[in-house]
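Please check this chain.
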Amino acid sequence: MLTHYQRKMILSVCPKGSKIKTAEYFQQKYLPCPMRITIRLPDATEHGLVLRRSRHSDGCIIKEAKVFSALTNLGLPVPEVLAGPELDPETPDKHLVAVYSLLSGINLQEMSMLSTQECDKAGQLLLEATTQLAQLTPQIRAVLDPHLLVEKTLAWQLDRIIEKSGNWIETDEFNHAIIKLNPILKTNSDPLIFTNGDYQPANFLSNGSEITGYLDFEHACYQDFLFGFVKYPIYDLHPLNKAGFIDHLLTQKRISVSAFAIRLALGCLWTLGREIPVEGGDKNYRQHVLALLSQSLELI
């Protein structure tokens, strides 16, 4: 599972005489995902580390490491980069790897599944965590290379969707949505905020009462705050979506249903173009996203 290069890299940050006891993926479903590494130290105690492996070949974890450094200086609890990122010559695609510290806490996805009360608490903590990132936008802009993070306006998102729409661009549903959204998005002036690029709940850790860790900044960027949440209804993220997380978000942030509908329609187009074929594949998934697209357009 670990290459010789990765083993050497992991042990380079440990006291001499340490040994790797276990190496396990955090999520088998999404490979190559980060691995939890358990180290047996010379004094027989155990210590946890994380082996971060890029899922893409575009240097995203190089960006992530730079963002972690900036966030650490701003006082945010993020992993410490102990080694790397470096190209692993022993992997087929020579992907980047890095060794991170292991943060404590339960991720908000696991927390949300414990009970109804914990689900509500996880939703509240998720809003607090994403708001905290957004509030750091001026500081992040001041310390990071201005070319490091992409500026993703809603109009920019639509242009990228059209470029990669495949056969969907030939369908009436897709073109109707583009025609309706285009003038709205071209005039949108909502500010872009700093985000880790993926608001899924497993990317935030908690001790049960507050956030103890922020994870996964491979896709960090500046984008519309609300757009980051469209994945909840699109992927029907359980149990937060059915628990009314989006309604809670809109109420707490005083955001209109129509404002969210604009972002949701855009997210549906992105999902159709990137993940769902016009014919074949998962019919239920396609129908679910098309239904969301139709419903959101009616609310605009």
Notes: The CA atoms of residues 9 and 83 lie 7 Å apart.
